[in-house]
Design a protein that fits this description.
Layout lengths: L12 E6 L5 E6 L5 E6 L7 E2 L2 E8 H10 L4 H4 L3 E4 L2 H10 L27 H13 L10
Antiparallel strand pairs: 1-5, 1-6, 2-3, 4-5
């Protein structure tokens, strides 16, 4: 995935997309020893687009510096965090990046083999119980995506 996290030089604020489940605190130390923190909304925010929480009105200068210092951070490198000049464009970009994999998605216990018995096959009773629990709460472990 190409990293196109650049804010236009004229932008004073940007919109930031973050696909990490609980968002992320971004910290930058200033030359005087103080620090600044921005908290990104994540995929568990009340409103998500394409699996991303969108944080509005973040200082473009802050994000440009933070991304520069953290360009090798896995969430930046894999596209789980991105910036865009405005909210509408960030939402479009989030929809385009719907398929980005963060590496911390929920595990499917059936496909992963967590419900296997001693013979190595999925235990029918355990699978039935799991499916009954999912039927009781179908939105469990499912991300609502606009």
């Amino acid at each position: 995935m190409s990293n196109d996290n650049t804010a236009p030089s004229s932008a004073k604020v940007v919109a930031v997309g973050c696909k990490l489940p609980h968002g992320l605190h971004l910290d930058l130390k200033r030359n005087d020893g103080s620090s600044e923190r921005v908290t990104l909304k994540g995929a568990n925010d009340a409103r998500i687009v394409g699996g991303y929480g969108i944080t509005e009105n973040v200082s473009a200068e802050f994000m440009t510096k933070w991304l520069e210092k953290n360009k090798d951070h896995k969430a930046v490198a894999n596209g789980s965090i991105f910036i865009h000049a405005d909210v509408k464009s960030a939402e479009s970009k989030a929809k385009e990046r719907r398929g980005v994999v963060t590496g911390i998605e929920p595990i499917d216990p059936i496909a992963s083999g967590m419900l296997r018995n001693e013979s190595g096959e999925n235990d029918p009773k355990a699978v039935k119980e799991y499916r009954a629990q999912v039927a009781k709460n179908p939105s469990r472990n499912v991300q609502r995506v606009e």
